[in-house]
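Collaborator request log, item 7. Partner lab (contact: R.S.) asked for a structural prediction of Molybdopterin-dependent oxidoreductase to inform their binding assays.
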Amino acid sequence: MTRLQVDGAPVELPAGASLLDAVQAAGAALPALCHDDRLRPAGSCRTCLVRADGRTVAACVTPATPGLTVDTADEDVRNLRRDAVALIASALPPHALADSAHSELAEACRALGIPPHTAAAEVTRGRDESHPYVQLDRDLCIACGRCVRMCSDVQGTFALTLTERGADTVVAPGTGGPWAESDCVSCGGCVDTCPTGAITQPGPGQGLTTRQTPEDRVRTTCGYCGVGCTLDIVVRENRVAAALPARDGPVNRGHACVKGRFAYGYLGSAERLTEPLIRENGALRPATWDEALSRIADGLRAAVLDGGPDAVAAISSARATNEENYLVQKLLRTVIGTNNVDNCSRLCHAPSAAGLTASFGRAGGTDPFDDVETADCLMVVGANPVEAHPVVGARLLQRALAGTSLIVADPRAVGLARHADVHLRPRPGTNVALFHGLAHVLVDEGMTDPDFLRDRATGLDGLAELLADHPPERVAGITGAPADDIRTAARLYGRAERPAVVYGLGVTEHLHGTDGVRTLANLPILRGAVGGTGRGFGISPLRGQNNVQGASDMGALPDLLPGYGRVTDPEARARAEAVWGRPVPPAPGLRIPEMFAAALVECGLVTPLFAGLSHERIDQEGACPGPAPRRTGRANEPCTRRSSPLRTGVPTCRRPPTCRPARNPTRIFRWCSSPGADGPTTTSLPPASTP
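Returned to partner:
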């Protein structure tokens, strides 16, 4: 820690802090028009001058050193700060300091006693209002460069630049044309950091930034992707005026993407449903909530009486909260009496939950993203975070630009691929083979951690036997990725001091999604780069929606209870029954595709081809005799049957032996949480995608 004095008060700061940090910690206020805590200091505006041991220095670029005495209230240095701010304001038009202006510059002038008439320049450089979310008033630009640095150093888009020279210097899109035609990704970073109001968002949020702390703000979490950005929603007159990224957000750190920052217009859309609608005689009519809920309850009750509990199914949502998902599955299981509940997380997250649980004993990533960001080698697999998870993508991009080794494995030329040291482009569906090839090189060239594997992993012998059959040359033939690139990628990962793996839906949304997660997890286990060893940061999934983890944790799945207990496990059911006071059905429910298929088959709304190919029948002994008999119902024939559309009368064959091609088995070994901890023996996985 660094100890110094500011205006006579002792201040203690962590190493690497600046004098501006010390002044702020002491509770003093300084103008700093070229500074933003999210950016590297520039020291170009000279508005944060202080006296440090008798020297006049810019506080933002001067390191805090032990024993230093800092004076911010000295009259001479205060006048210097005032003159610097007044000089900047004098080059701006009158509306820069108008009473309605609440920019950082306008508030600094008021604090320093600089009158509004100081801004009296007659500049007519014009405006750019071509962009739907960002407007530029060139006359207010002071060329501080904060917007340019935000675009490059935080977002990594490099869409902005400073043009012209001297007093004519002004920010402009780097492409030279209108803002709307530039490379801007609408993250809003430039809007938030601009100190003069030269760059603002149109509408009721104009002038609102994270620097301000309005009382009418509500803290929330972004509801779009799975990053989990913290937002402050400014509400005025019962309407959203702005969505501001919270600077203390643990993941986004005052940054956002276009969705989190600007995509709230639908809240006030005239097309948004604001009341229940009930269909009668082919048309929808407004209804009260009581009427709508009664109609739903009556329909559910009739379906259960007619077709039994399994005549009802519910699709929950990975965009809903934990509480909502929990209540949906509880309603189906304890009130209706069925396990027919599912949500989209089974496609994008359930393979991760199963694979990571098999490898590490837990259904989530192994390390927080702040740690992952400090890795010296990043392997990004099956993900396009620059577009799908822009805030995380921006942070990963900054690490790559700073020199961190980057391996991208994706058939597509995703955003990070252009900055990658190695871009592996496997054929779709060959992920398992690719991961085996990388693991082969790690084992073959001695880039594993023998002590870690001996003390904290099991099944190495079985895995080594399998990997011996996957040299890079054979894997290249399967995946299409060159053998030399496979070796290069494995060596980058294997020789790094602190590697990390980040993966997305390109790994999980496959027939062998769980296999892919488990075999990918082998890489950090082989390297000993997991489990708090200090030699790496494990493996982290990027979620598709904002609460796929929670939806799965809460048991909104046809075969799993809250906490991932299987419905077929009597002990897991007994635990749930003890809490709920109601019996839990023992048979797994229908998945979403099976729900629709069952409904269509029962209603006769499918062609014979659909019915014949979509369902395999099983006899009472569990054998799979083949396709179901063809139905006689015509396509699009109205459903006149009274029985439930979900009651097929024919059990479905989830994974009959004859329905999947024979393939080589894969093997995996499991990491144990501590040396000597008991772990399972070598486990045979479902077949891999290698021929």
